[in-house]
Known about the structure:
mainly beta
Amino acid sequence: MKFAGASALAAAALGGAPLPLAAQDDLVVLRRYEVFKRGTIHGLDPATRGLVIVWEDLGRVKLKAADLVINYAPGGTKETTGLAAGLKVGQIVDVQWYDYIDFLVARTTPEISAKARAMVASGARAEGLPDSEQQIRLMEQSGMVVKTDPTTSTIDIVNPASGEVLQTPQIRTEAGQAALRTLKPGDPVTTVFSIQTAIKITVVR
């Protein structure tokens, strides 16, 4: 069984086409989902502003660094000293970040599919960070329900493109929990989750 990571089944942007009304919604990751943890940088992907952190208590987790993480720039140099700047593999860091949050869990219909695409194209913002450049990316997962697990609040979904079974992140919102209780194996389902996103990274050593 694979857990769907931050890049799994991410929906494509809508390009220049007019966005449905769903894209105009104020999609917000609430501050109560904020997490503060210490870990060690295991990997960096400058092309996507991605990083892998090995937490002291959670193990290995993939994150995206928001624009607020101004010290991301791996491999950069400080203009004033010429010394290496930015994050490096092996550093111990304190990270302020947001975990996965569900924005949509619903049986698939043409309207729901359009809404999911619009939400992904729009992105979300973190509570207290109103600027559009501080968006938190969203990802879509859709397919046929294989199994629902009320204990872990997850859904196993068959990826229609590959036939691979993927597990959603934990469903946390009341609306998502209510939708989960209505689903059964064989149902077509569409979900939209925020991607785990770091908004501040402080190097400890």
